[in-house]
Amino acid sequence: MSLTDKLSMLMARPGGDNAQKDDVPWWMRYAGRGVGTVGGFIAIILGLLNCISIVLLDVGCLIAGIWQMLAGFIVIVCEAPCCCFFIDYVQTLSDKMETRPYWNKAACYVGLSVPPFFMCFISMSTWFGSGLIFATGIIYGMMALGKKGSRDDMAAMAAGGTTPPGAPLSASHDHNVTLMEDPDVWRPN
Question: What residue intervals traverse the membrane (predicted)?
Fold first, then answer.
């Protein structure tokens, strides 16, 4: 048994199907989960440090710190529910997020990480804490894009030749044709 098989057995969810559902590389899955878990913990700690700025009467940084701690907790709940097993609804929320497509996770994490930047732009704890949550969203966004085409497929498309065998059917249309020129799309009455 290889090291990746052992790691995947350790990271497998109890009661979940262990079949690979897509062609995302194993290292990218672990990167998303790892950065999300570590980044969530760091965001909580740095959000708490950000809340100390109330001493300087900076209410924007206080709200940004609270938001950052909440975002870090949500990311930890979604990525590592074993860290919050004492809360009843955590496994349910984690299972719901696990069934969603990668682009939903990416949009959620990026959306959670952006508001603290607008509230407290000058704080390095905001940049680092929310930046790690943003990086998790970027990793899930790259996972949503999918696998890159083969070298032959990319060379054929760059040369302007025919559609490669692995391309979807919609790629066979000429992208320079407008709606009025394509007879398959627009037919007069």
Answer: 35-57, 69-90, 125-145
What token pair was written down for 79?
A: 């990525």
Residue 80 lies in a domain: yes
Question: Could you tell me if residue 173 is inside a domain?
Answer: no
Within 13 A of 150's CA, how many CA atoms are on the CB side?
8
**Residues near 12 by beta carbon (within 8 Å), at least 6 away in sequence:** 18
Residue with tokens 């098989």: 5
* CA separation, residue 152 to residues 142, 147, 156 (Å): 22, 14, 6
By residue range, what is the domain housing residue 30?
25-145
Q: Is the pTM of the predicted complex or chain greater than 0.90?
A: no
> What are the tens digits of pLDDT across the range 102-157?
999 999 999 999 999 999 888 899 999 999 999 999 999 999 988 777 788 778 87
Q: Is the Cβ–Cβ distance between 114 and 155 less than 8 Å?
A: no
Domain count, the chain: 1
